[in-house]
Amino acid sequence: MNAIIDAVINRPDTVAYPFGELELPEGFRGAIVIDPEKCNGCGLCVRDCPTDGLKLEKRSRDEFKLIHYPARCAYCSQCEQSCPRDAIGHSNALVGATERPRELVVVLKEKNGSKG
Ligand code: SF4
Ligand code: SF4
């Protein structure tokens, strides 16, 4: 009975997301992001990803594409741990849901030549 009265008087502990604001805690493992200035296409994050969530298409040292597949990602943070240049990690943003996972695919970095 007390619990019912408490629920009527106080605000609920749950949030109304997606209809209301959602405050994510600090350190939440959200969408994968990259610092393109730091990434050199070494591929260590791809090698260590346990779910094939990352792919490196490499033509040469100066021509590569690093791709993230959010629908496969476990948000485990292994890529962040593996990157020797501190280039990849999580943002605090939620990844959307879709029936078409290909829509979520993100090219994290594309380098075409020595200046890319
Ligand atoms: S967070 Fe984990 S599953 Fe997702 S891309 Fe990084 S290593 Fe792969
Ligand atoms: S994000 Fe880091 S580990 Fe992955 S390819 Fe770039 S530099 Fe290498």
Strand order of the biggest β-sheet: 2-3-5
Strand percentage lies at: 15-25%
Give the total of beta strands. 5
Write the CATH architecture name: 2-Layer Sandwich
From the alpha carbons, calculate the radius of gyration and give it in angstroms: 19 Å
Reading the helices and strands in chain order gives HEHEEHEE
Q: List cofactors, ions and other ligands.
A: iron/sulfur cluster
Summed up, the helix count is 3
Highest-level CATH class? Alpha Beta
On the 0 to 100 scale, the average pLDDT is 91
What's a concise summary of this model?
The protein is built from three helices and five strands, in the order αβαββαββ. With 116 residues, the chain is of the alpha+beta class. It has one domain (24-112): Alpha-Beta Plaits (2-Layer Sandwich).
Give a description of the structure.
- It is a single chain.
- The chain is an alpha+beta fold and 116 residues long.
- It has a single domain (24-112), classed as Alpha-Beta Plaits.
- Helix content is 16%, strand content 22%.
- It contains three helices and five strands; from the N terminus they run αβαββαββ.
- The protein has helices spanning 2-9, 44-48, 78-82; strands spanning 32-34, 54-60, 63-68, 88-90, 106-112.
- The strands form two sheets. The protein has a three-stranded antiparallel sheet, with no helix packed on it. A two-stranded antiparallel sheet has the order 1-4.
- Strand 2 (54-60) and strand 3 (63-68) form a beta hairpin.
- The chain is elongated, with a radius of gyration of 19 Å.
- The model has no long low-confidence stretch (mean pLDDT 91).
- The structure holds iron/sulfur cluster (2 copies).
